[in-house]
């Protein structure tokens, strides 16, 4: 079982990685652009799109109500955002309409913020 210090670190890292509000994420997830990006293991909803829905649920919870599964997903989100920011296109003109940005937004991070 994770200790209190680990949960605090994950909470802070998640808050830094997810820079979109629940309402911004929900609005984004309704767009065609959101649905077109990401890995779709069964041909349906992408992993990132499903993650975005889960992020909204987590962000709407009180910290005291978060479960171990919530913290596990928060760690996954932090890892994804960090990796993709490091790998992403670094030419500013490519970012606004890129699949890279759209994928990150499915995970709750808008690199233009």
From TrEMBL:
Question: Which Pfam families does this one have?
Answer: DUF3140
InterPro entries listed in its UniProt record: DUF3140
PANTHER family in the cross-refs: DNA-BINDING PROTEIN (PTHR40630:SF1), POSSIBLE DNA-BINDING PROTEIN (PTHR40630)
Identify this protein by name.
DUF3140 domain-containing protein
């Amino acid at each position: 079982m994770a200790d209190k210090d680990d949960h605090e670190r994950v909470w802070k890292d998640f808050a830094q990685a997810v820079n979109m509000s629940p309402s911004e994420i929900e609005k984004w997830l309704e767009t065609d652009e959101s649905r077109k990006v990401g890995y779709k293991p069964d041909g349906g909803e992408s992993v990132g799109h499903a993650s975005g829905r889960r992020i909204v649920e987590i962000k709407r919870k009180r910290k005291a109500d978060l479960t171990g599964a919530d913290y596990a997903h928060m760690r996954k989100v932090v890892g994804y955002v960090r990796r993709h920011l490091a790998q992403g296109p670094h030419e500013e003109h490519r970012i606004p309409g890129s699949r890279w940005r759209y994928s990150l937004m499915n995970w709750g991070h808008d690199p233009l913020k």
